[in-house]
Amino acid sequence: MLDPRSEIYPTIEYRPIQPSDLEVLENIHLALFPIRYEREFFLNVVNGNGIISWGAVDTSRSDDRRDELIGFVTTRMIAAQDSEIEDLFRYNSSRKGLTLLYILTLGVVESYRNLGIASSLVREVIKYAASISNCRGVYLHVISYNQPAISFYNKMLFKLVRRLPQFYYIRGQHYDSYLFVYYVNGGRSPCSPLEVITSFVVDFRAFLKMVVAKFWNKEDRSTPRWSRCKESTTLLVSQNNKRIVGGENTRCHV
Predict the structure, then answer these.
(1) pLDDT tens digits for 186-209?
(2) Angle at CA 157, nearest 5°, toward 83 and 2?
(3) What share of the chain is helix, strand, coil (3-state, %, to 5)?
(4) In terms of CB atoms within 10 Å, which end of the chain has fewer, N or C?
(5) Predicted model pTM
(6) Among 6-10, 184-188, 207-211, 238-242, which is the least confidently predicted range?
(7) Distance CA 142, CA 148 (A)
């Protein structure tokens, strides 16, 4: 096992997963995950059939394994409306056609842990998602007992948005899942009920101001100039100019 305190660090490079990675990819998944994936999944990964992936390799190896996978992340782009978190974008005025990048699997072989490889792979995912103009976030599920993974995604600034009861069924037992999201391109959590009401009040006040302005413009056209000036001294009422925080600059967090 590599010692992260050692002065000698491997040279890690990142590249797309390719057909020659098939066997190694299957073996790593088998060693790391309690869930068994079908052969079709791995074939789709290595051939890029609807799956976007990145692999990590140690090019400082002196043997013929310098291009062998030692880490990976697999993802799929899906329509936001087809995801479990479609409701998080309900108040987004441009929600039509929005997409999300879903992390399917992420793993690093044990001997290369604690070298920042998983973090680098996730950053590749975030960077890719941010380059897609209609993508609003990266999301994933974490089984409820996987505390290291939960801590990892918190450290990567993902937001825990909900808990899904009995999401996993593994070896005859149900487990809950935590759902994490990293927002990109202006994506954000939905507003709280208070902010929704506040936004409505702000819009309604603007509407009332418009109606009043039209009413006074109409009155102005039918009132002599000297009378308007005289009346204005008695009709003006001082008002408290309170600012209600809301609108598109508001940020809410789940």
Answers:
(1) 887 655 444 445 444 444 565 576
(2) 110
(3) 40, 25, 35
(4) N
(5) 0.71
(6) 238-242
(7) 10
